[in-house]
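Q: I have 292 residues here and want to know how they pack in 3D. Can you give me a structure?
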Amino acid sequence: MIEFPNISPEIFSISLGGIEFDLRWYAVSYILGFVIAFYIMKFFINRNHYWKYYSPPMDVDLTEDLLTYLILGVILGGRMGYVLFYNLDFYILNPIDIFRIWDGGMSFHGGFLGVVFALSYFCLKNGIQIMPAADLLALASPPGLLLGRLANFINGELWGRPTDMPWGVVFPGEFAQICPGIVGPCARHPSQLYEAGLEGLLLFIVLGFLAYFGGLKKSGVIAGTFIAGYGLARFFVEYYRVPDPQFFSDVNPYGFAYTFGQLGVTMGQTLSLPMILIGVIFILYGSRRRPY
């Protein structure tokens, strides 16, 4: 097993007038994710001549406006997705806690839906074709996912199920270190790093490869690959990731959201299945289109 590295979730903390202000790695991962996304979109707009054939053409100034919409979509969608998909009963009883984002609780699938609405509104408002814009956004998203999962690891959250593999990590906290039938500290799968590698690094390499060899010229293929790729990666990692505590009970020791006889799926897997289907549809749709 591997001991959890001694990394504080806080980069620094200051006190002003008795009020504490903290800068956390998780917040920095969001900020850097948006900044990197902007420069990736700018890179492809400036180096791929076919963007100028759209009417109106997608340019860097529009990308700056798009970034504002995306930030709102990620934050609002991510929070509401967590509220609706993962812990609705709690927030019905404690509605004021919906606004306590600093306590944690963000859903990728909710953030994804928020981005879909934000991108759709932006394209309608500016007369931009939505599929090429979706391709551009898909290319720019994996680095943010990579940074977010690394921040989850630093926070010691969203850890995996118990394991006896040599790369199992002993995460901090009594709840993380106690596992049924295991004497001593419990090593767990570093599922955050699995997700960082699959959803972030590997998916970015695949999308970059497709873009380099002309995938952007068939609008929809890049976006579909991102959507299906994330869904597949998340579905796979859910087998090693511990679901949220509210899904566990005496009759549901594995934290499944739904069971079908002897089979069960987590909430993350349930929300990822439509993504895989939609992604495949996008790929098939884009592949049959005449390239620009």
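Q: Anything worth noting?
A: The chain has a mean pLDDT of 86. Strands lie at 2-3, 10-16, 19-24, 169-170, 258-260, 263-265.
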